[in-house]
């Protein structure tokens, strides 16, 4: 038991009944839950964790695995394999469909999270700023934004109009979702009665788009065109994350920021007053209206 | 995928396949690079599978002429369409389709495998061409620079390399070691080979655009001499895929030369 207790998984915090807000972290957490790995999930919410680990990092003794795929490969060597019952053909399909999901839905997620200005300013950025400790919230959000922008730029090098890019992305997402829906059909999971890696990948890419309260998110409406995908997400939630709180840990702060117009103007007034007085005093002082002897 | 393509698909549907269709691509002998060549060949194979006439038109600046900045692109009458997906849609718009007989699930399968090839084999080809130092110095820089005069070839190579590296970074492939890249390709070939499962084509007896795409990439990998022959060796370990490639070559490309 002492060996197993040393499994640790460092992830970004979750919210809105999501285990984490980061796609890769969701994958790692869900895999460990499904495969029954006795792992201790740690959240990047203090300076020490943030300084030493990136998310998701799987730690066993002194071995570090910094991505989902590495983690899965390592867990397989320890006999935590959830794909062991699949036929070679199903494994081949897993690889193909998870690649499809990754290549079509990842840009959509990056766009909705970080490139869409309104979502980023009003939700994503605010949330990560609150969830991470001080110096790291700037570093991580900066990195996220840069990465998302790079991805969108390399995918659409000829297009600069964000609305058009959004339309293309929505179209590819629609394509991909209809493929997933056809593949899933009426069954519980993609391959039979137990979830496999493919189910995990699909869940990790769909759940954030469904659950997070983005100010503008058209994908949510698109997903609701395929009810079997929505029930698929609910099925996994019920089976593996039954007791995640629905209400937000950071929502109260979020509400304050949305109604914080008054706060901002108070600060602005204060700054203006201070600068105006100092300007007047400085002018008076330099012209000798107030002499230094008086002061 | 772009709006213009959508319009040309809708408008072009009314017209039959014009006679003077031209397929623009870079010079095959001295200029073209592995990933571009694979995509050009895939489109050629697809058009041949549909029994549509076209002429290959080599241009040194084909890439810059293309509406999506990627080769190849076709000019059919008044319409210009680029890349395999766009061209497939354009051809489907004229009522010619290789996937009529497939049900929805098979179509879904086909799209998934096509995206697998785009997101693994194509990216791996880019990696080998532009990140691997040996291949870059001996093949890529010389071929890519061949159409420019002296100082410009260095500048163009430099700019293009930065652009590709930026793309690989965004796709999270740049930090992979070359062994990891080969492993990805190996997994992908394995998956394709299993999916093929001894059949003539991926979907029973008739070829689809997936077969065209697989042919384009694997044939190019097998026939392009590179300083590192690992990619070709990986493909050679899968006799089923080699058979598929040879079958398509015999069926659709050999006839051409005899006529």
From TrEMBL, chain A:
Pfam families reported for this sequence: GST_C_6 (PF17171), Tom37 (PF10568)
Annotated TM spans: 264-285
Entry's Gene Ontology cellular component terms: SAM complex
Gene3D superfamilies assigned: 1.20.1050.10
GO biological process: mitochondrion organization; protein transport
Domain Mitochondrial outer membrane transport complex Sam37/metaxin N-terminal: from-to ranges: 25-143
Principal cellular location given in the protein's record: mitochondrion
Record domain Metaxin glutathione S-transferase: where: 173-236
Keyword field: Membrane, Mitochondrion, Mitochondrion outer membrane, Protein transport, Transmembrane, Transmembrane helix, Transport
Entries under InterPro entries matching the protein: Glutathione-S-Trfase_C_sf, Metaxin_GST, Mito_Protein_Transport_Metaxin, Sam37/metaxin_N
Keyword Transport among UniProt keywords: yes
Subcellular location: Mitochondrion outer membrane
Similarity annotation: Belongs to the metaxin family.
PANTHER family tied to this protein: FAILED AXON CONNECTIONS-RELATED, METAXIN RELATED
Name listed for the protein in its UniProt record: Metaxin-1
Organism: Rhamnusium bicolor
Automatic annotation (TrEMBL), chain B:
Ranges where the Metaxin glutathione S-transferase domain occurs: 186-248
A single BP term in Gene Ontology: mitochondrion organization
CC annotations in GO: SAM complex
Pfam families given in the database record: GST_C_6, Tom37
Cellular localisation: Mitochondrion outer membrane
Domain Mitochondrial outer membrane transport complex Sam37/metaxin N-terminal, first and last residues per copy: 40-160
Principal subcellular localisation of the protein: mitochondrion
Family to which this protein belongs: Belongs to the metaxin family.
Protein name: Metaxin-2
Species of origin: Rhamnusium bicolor
């Amino acid at each position: 038991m002492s060996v197993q207790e040393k499994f640790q998984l460092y992830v970004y915090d979750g919210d809105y009944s999501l285990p984490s807000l980061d796609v890769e972290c969701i994958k790692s957490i869900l895999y460990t839950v499904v495969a029954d790995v006795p792992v201790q999930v740690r959240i990047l919410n203090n300076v020490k964790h943030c300084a030493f680990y990136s998310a998701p990092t799987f730690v066993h003794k002194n071995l570090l695995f910094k991505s989902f795929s590495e983690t899965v490969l390592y867990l397989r060597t320890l006999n935590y394999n959830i794909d062991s019952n699949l036929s070679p053909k199903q494994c081949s399909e897993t690889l193909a469909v998870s690649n499809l999901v990754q290549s079509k839905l990842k840009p959509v997620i990056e766009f909705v999270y970080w490139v869409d200005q309104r979502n980023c300013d009003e939700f994503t950025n605010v949330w990560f700023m609150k969830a991470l400790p001080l110096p790291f919230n700037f570093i991580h959000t900066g990195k996220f934004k840069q990465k998302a922008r790079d991805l969108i730029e390399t995918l659409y090098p000829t297009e600069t109009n964000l609305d058009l890019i959004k339309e293309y992305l929505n179209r590819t997402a629609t394509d991909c979702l209809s493929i997933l829906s056809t593949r899933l059909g009426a069954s519980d999971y993609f391959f039979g009665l137990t979830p496999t890696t493919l189910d995990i990948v699909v869940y990790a890419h769909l759940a954030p788009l469904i659950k997070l309260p983005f100010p503008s998110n058209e994908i949510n409406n698109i997903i609701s065109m395929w009810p079997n995908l929505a029930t698929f997400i609910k099925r996994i939630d019920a089976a593996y994350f039954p007791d995640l709180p629905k209400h937000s840990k950071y929502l109260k702060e979020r509400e304050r920021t949305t109604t914080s117009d008054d706060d901002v103007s108070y600060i602005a007034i204060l700054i203006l007053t201070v600068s105006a007085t100092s300007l007047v005093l400085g002018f008076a002082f330099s012209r000798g209206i107030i002499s230094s002897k008086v002061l | 995928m772009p709006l213009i393509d959508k319009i040309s698909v809708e408008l072009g549907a009314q017209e039959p396949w014009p006679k003077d269709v031209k397929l623009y691509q870079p010079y095959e002998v001295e200029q073209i690079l592995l990933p571009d060549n694979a995509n050009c060949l895939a489109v050629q194979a697809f058009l041949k599978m549909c029994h549509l006439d076209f002429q290959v038109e080599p241009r040194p600046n084909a890439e810059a002429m293309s509406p999506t900045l990627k080769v190849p692109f076709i000019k059919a009458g008044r319409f210009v369409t680029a890349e395999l997906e766009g061209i497939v849609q354009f051809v489907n718009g004229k009522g010619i389709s290789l996937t009529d007989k497939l049900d929805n699930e098979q179509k879904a399968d086909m799209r998934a495998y096509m995206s697998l090839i785009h997101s693994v084999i194509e990216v791996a080809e880019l990696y080998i061409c532009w990140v691997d130092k040996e291949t870059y110095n001996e093949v890529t820089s010389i071929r890519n620079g061949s159409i420019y005069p002296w100082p410009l070839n260095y500048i163009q190579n430099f700019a293009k390399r930065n652009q590709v590296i930026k793309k690989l970074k965004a796709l999270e492939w740049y930090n992979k070691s070359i062994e990891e890249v080969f492993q990805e390709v190996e997994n992908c070939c394995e998956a394709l080979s299993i999916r093929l499962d001894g059949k003539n084509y991926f979907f029973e007896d008739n070829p689809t655009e997936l077969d065209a795409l697989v042919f384009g990439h694997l044939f190019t990998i097998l026939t392009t001499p590179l300083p590192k022959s690992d990619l070709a060796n990986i493909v050679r370990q899968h006799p089923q895929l080699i058979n598929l490639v040879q079958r398509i070559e015999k069926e659709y490309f050999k006839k051409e030369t005899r006529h």
